[in-house]
Design a protein that fits this description.
With 217 residues, the chain is an alpha/beta fold. It has two domains: 137 residues, Rossmann fold (3-Layer(aba) Sandwich), CATH 3.40.50.2300; 62 residues, Arc Repressor Mutant, subunit A (Orthogonal Bundle). It contains ten helices and six strands. Strands 2-1-3-4-5-6 form a six-stranded parallel beta sheet, sandwiched between helices. Helix 4 crosses helix 6 and helix 7 crosses helix 9.
Length: 217
């Protein structure tokens, strides 16, 4: 059986390398590529791939939000996160949001092939440096989590949040989402209220805490 894959990464060189690596396997076929999160969601809905490989940090819509929406639009698609973060908190967040695999960018090419095969067979895969205890914690429910205000947002509100965090204006967001600026303004007001945010500065701080925007080293 041929496995159909979708690659989502904003770096063309990374996508090219991944495509070459994966299509060297006789039973792998890359069905499409996306350079940002919004494109990735549309592509997943169109292609219904067996496996999505998505970078943690994506423009337009972050990798974890892509996975959230992929679960709703193509439930059979298994997701592998490609990340530079080896921190346990990042791995748990990825698993919580529906990822089946987590591969560190520093790992060998063979690790990505192994990850795709594992998740397509219904198993979880973590890069070897990551502890199996992470999965055990995830399966046992981990630590009790406080109510997450982000969970109250609709898919569209999350899309507006991600784009607003990048500094886009309501008109720019409207063009990107193919809606009116007034609609964007309404979604923006609703998400600010739900998250308890008062201005753009607080929105940026929330996005940094949430991992929507990369933190500066």
């Amino acid at each position: 059986m041929t496995l159909r894959l979708v690659l989502a990464d904003d770096h063309p060189v990374v996508r090219k390398g991944l495509r070459a690596l994966l299509e060297a396997e006789p039973d792998f076929r890359v069905a499409g590529e996306a350079a940002d999160g919004l494109e990735a969601v549309k592509l997943i809905e169109q292609q219904r791939p067996d496996v999505l490989i998505v970078d943690w940090m994506m423009p337009g819509l972050g990798g974890l939000e892509v996975i959230r929406q992929a679960r709703n639009r193509s439930p059979q698609t298994r997701c592998v996160v490609l990340s530079m973060h080896a921190n346990e908190a990042y791995v748990l967040e990825a698993l919580k949001n529906g990822a089946s695999g987590y591969v560190l960018k520093e790992e060998s090419h063979a690790a990505m092939v192994e990850a795709v095969r594992a998740v397509s067979a219904g198993r979880r895969y973590l890069s070897p440096p990551l502890s199996e205890k992470i999965i055990e914690r995830f399966l046992s429910g981990g630590e009790a989590a406080a109510e997450d205000s982000y969970e109250k947002l609709t898919d569209r509100e999350r899309e507006v949040l991600h784009l607003a965090a990048e500094g886009r204006t309501n008109s720019e967001i409207a063009d990107r989402l193919c809606v009116s600026p007034r609609t964007v303004e309404t979604h923006r007001a609703h998400l600010m209220q739900k998250l308890g945010l008062k201005n753009q500065t607080e929105l940026i701080r929330f996005a940094l805490r949430r991992g929507i925007l990369p933190k500066e080293d």
